UniProtKB/TrEMBL annotation:
GGDEF domain residues: 84-219
Coiled coil regions, renumbered to chain: none
Gene3D superfamilies: 3.30.70.270
Protein name: diguanylate cyclase
Signal peptide residue numbers: none
Catalytic activity: 2 GTP = 3',3'-c-di-GMP + 2 diphosphate
Organism from which the protein derives: Comamonas faecalis
EC numbers, comma separated: 2.7.7.65
Amino acid sequence: MNKTAPPSTFVDLNELQLDTALALVGQPHMTLPVGGGAGTQYLQCLIDGLCDLSLTDPLTGLPNRRYMRQALDGEIDRVSRSGEAALLLMLDIDHFKRINDSHGHHAGDQVLQSVARTLQSCLRPMDTVARYGGEEFAIILPACQFGFGKVVAERVRRAIESTPIALSPHQSVHVTISIGGAFTMQWIRSTAQLWIERADTQLYIAKDSGRNCVSIEEQPDSTVSAEEKDELLGMLTGCFYNDADAKTLSPAPEHSTGSAAH
């Protein structure tokens, strides 16, 4: 018996109040299409545009915190399966409030935009740089080995320090950043929040050390001593044998050759 397919439901886009959505995606005068297929394509483009807006920082054009959290979750999943190292850097513009107080908030916006451009210019295409909030940025560096973490962070720090930021045709400023970093735990599925907290801890250390410096979390010591190996081997060996095996493997009791006492 053939089942009757449910009737298709068409939405008349002219009945939807889309003015605000169209204005947000920058196309307030777009003409609504006529027809089911065209309407579906039009609505999908509008949804995609709104999704992009929700994941982008409007001032710098960088991904925002929401996007970064999704990227962190994806990187943690990849590292837990591959065991490949990845580094998270948290960056903070030093004394940013002084810029706003001395030159105004427009100058502060110019500084944020310049820092964002510089960060993008000194990273790989596979890296993710996001504006985490305020004057703080975050960088996710996949496939970054432990030995290169501080090298990369120092390169970023120097790039920001050496880049003049033009506030006007006759005035420019220089800013510095403090950087804290933490690697993922290899082969372990952690959480984005814990990873951020570990990197943030290193950022606070960099600030407490005088700012304009880098602090990267030390690589956890995963080496196992000979005593620990022997102990672990003994524990594993014990798990492989049950009581019956133990009886079979244990030496037979000795029999007395003398006369039994009555």
